[in-house]
């Protein structure tokens, strides 16, 4: 289950620069992390304008507590995660992922390359709020080096996951959104044999082309470019490139659950095992996985829970096919146990290389589901969940995260936000009418509390 944290959310600390996210806070995180982890720590960042100041403060905290710091410069979060697993005792990325330019944050990376889990994060927060920092004397201070070239090891690793030249004959338009993947995803795809065009391909923390969230409204220039150039697909990342979303050859945005299902279709065909994903993911993924004899394990919402469950299953000797979230964040255990947008871009090239059909046809061949989602302000989300649990006591209930009601082929999820007085409601059914009725039924419950 999830542990309540005071400062960190599901994906690290985030806040508005100069208000919640300050050099003071970054320094404290560095001091706390450096007091908990010894040895060589890798630091990286996305392209945000506030990155250098926050990285400088974080590094100061690490150095003052005796850690040796390697500054890897600007690179995707999954690239830093890969480097930490192979070369370092811990890591930290200065990023606010998909948030607007005025935000920034810190993600802490464990030695195995995964994001720091709840228990260690609570220990880090306790140190931070209690000012319990192990400052070292002059002869214990850490040293700093820069290593902007280490990122090439990540590119090599992704390329090495696929047969040589698998992308030959394919044209791809890459939209890194002026974020951290400007130099990685285009190179990965080029080395796989693709012809690569870019839009928003220059690093720029003001994000002049579009916001870091790769949502359909910001991607119309990418959609137009894909259609105009006759490309096989377009790919866009969020600001730190742990997620990837796709545009088909006609310039149509592909829903992330459909993307997840296409990848499930490819991986589960060859790799039998469990697919791990949060309870908020479309049944489409489970439907496709089961066709290939794979089962699905559901986790709380948050990529760290997916990654940790995958690791626990592996530890227990249960084969894991792959994992991911229905937002374009996919985890490939043959590569590493974290979401990886560059790897997902490469995977799409591989899917199309093995297909007689263009991407639009592959998407249209998927089973259809209707998913309805909304969020609602609720004074007391806890009592709402309790009330729903009572009302639906006679039905199949899952308390993995919030409350999920499974009814025949349909399901409904009511999930309180960790930070605000609101709940998120998701309902899905293979039948549009059933989905609508089920959604109304759940809203009735929400309104009653
Ligand atoms: Mg991200």
CATH architecture grouping of the largest domain: 3-Layer(aba) Sandwich
Mean pLDDT: 96
Q: Name the structural class.
A: alpha/beta
Give the strand content. 15-25%
> How many domains is the backbone divided into?
4
Percent range for helical residues?
25-40%
Question: Could you explain the architecture of this structure?
Answer:
The chain is an alpha/beta fold and 449 residues long. The protein folds into 4 domains: 137 residues, Alpha-D-Glucose-1,6-Bisphosphate, subunit A, domain 3 (Alpha-D-Glucose-1,6-Bisphosphate, Chain A, domain 3), CATH 3.40.120; 99 residues, Alpha-D-Glucose-1,6-Bisphosphate, Chain A, domain 3 (3-Layer(aba) Sandwich), CATH 3.40.120; 109 residues, Alpha-D-Glucose-1,6-Bisphosphate, subunit A, domain 3 (Alpha-D-Glucose-1,6-Bisphosphate, Chain A, domain 3); 79 residues, TATA-Binding Protein. Strands 1-5-4-2-3-6 form a 6-stranded mixed beta sheet, sandwiched between helices. Strand 7, helix 6 and strand 8 form a beta-alpha-beta unit. The radius of gyration is 22 Å and the shape is globular. The relative contact order is 0.11. The site of magnesium ion has 6 residues, from loops.
């Amino acid at each position: 289950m999830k542990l309540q944290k005071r400062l960190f959310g599901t994906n690290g600390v985030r806040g508005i620069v100069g208000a919640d996210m300050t050099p003071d806070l970054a320094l404290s995180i560095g001091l706390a992390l450096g007091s908990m982890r010894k040895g060589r720590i890798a630091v990286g960042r996305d392209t945000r304008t506030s990155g250098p100041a926050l990285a400088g403060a974080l590094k100061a905290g690490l150095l003052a507590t005796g850690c040796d710091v390697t500054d890897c410069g600007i690179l995707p979060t999954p690239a830093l995660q890969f480097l930490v697993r192979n070369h370092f005792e811990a890591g930290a990325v200065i990023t606010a992922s998909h948030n607007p330019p005025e935000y920034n944050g810190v993600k802490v990376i464990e030695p195995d390359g995964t994001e720091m889990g709840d228990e260690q994060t609570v220990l880090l927060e306790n140190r931070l709020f209690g000012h319990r920092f192990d400052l070292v004397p002059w002869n214990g201070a850490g040293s700093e080096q820069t290593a902007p070239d280490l990122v090439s090891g990540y590119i090599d690793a992704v390329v090495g996951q696929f047969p040589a030249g698998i992308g030959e004959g394919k044209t791809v338009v890459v939209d890194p959104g002026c974020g951290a993947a400007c130099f990685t995803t285009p190179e990965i795809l080029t080395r796989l044999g693709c012809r690569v065009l870019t839009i928003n391909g220059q690093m720029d923390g003001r994000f002049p082309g579009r916001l870091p969230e790769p949502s359909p409204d910001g991607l119309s220039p990418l959609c137009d470019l894909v259609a105009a150039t006759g490309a096989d697909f377009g790919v866009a990342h969020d600001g730190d490139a742990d997620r990837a979303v796709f545009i088909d050859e006609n310039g149509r945005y592909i829903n992330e659950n459909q993307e997840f299902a296409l990848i499930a279709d490819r991986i589960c065909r060859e790799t039998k095992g469990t697919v791990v994903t949060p309870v908020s993911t479309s049944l489409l993924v489970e439907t496709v996985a089961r066709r290939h004899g794979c089962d699905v394990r559901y986790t709380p919402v948050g990529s760290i829970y997916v990654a940790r469950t995958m690791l626990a299953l592996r530890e227990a000797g249960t084969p894991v096919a792959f994992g991911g979230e229905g937002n374009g964040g996919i985890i490939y255990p043959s590569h590493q146990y974290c979401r990886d947008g560059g790897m997902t871009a490469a995977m799409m090239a591989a899917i199309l290389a093995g297909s007689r059909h263009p991407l639009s046809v592959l998407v249209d061949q998927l089973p259809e589901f209707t998913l309805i989602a909304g969020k609602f302000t609720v004074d007391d989300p806890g009592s709402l969940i309790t009330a729903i649990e009572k009302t639906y006591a006679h039905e199949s209930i899952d308390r993995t995260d919030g409350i999920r009601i499974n009814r025949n082929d349909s399901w409904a999820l009511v999930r309180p936000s960790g930070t605000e007085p609101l709940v998120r409601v998701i309902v899905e059914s293979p039948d549009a009418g059933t989905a609508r009725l089920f959604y109304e039924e759940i809203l009735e419950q929400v309104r009653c509390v």
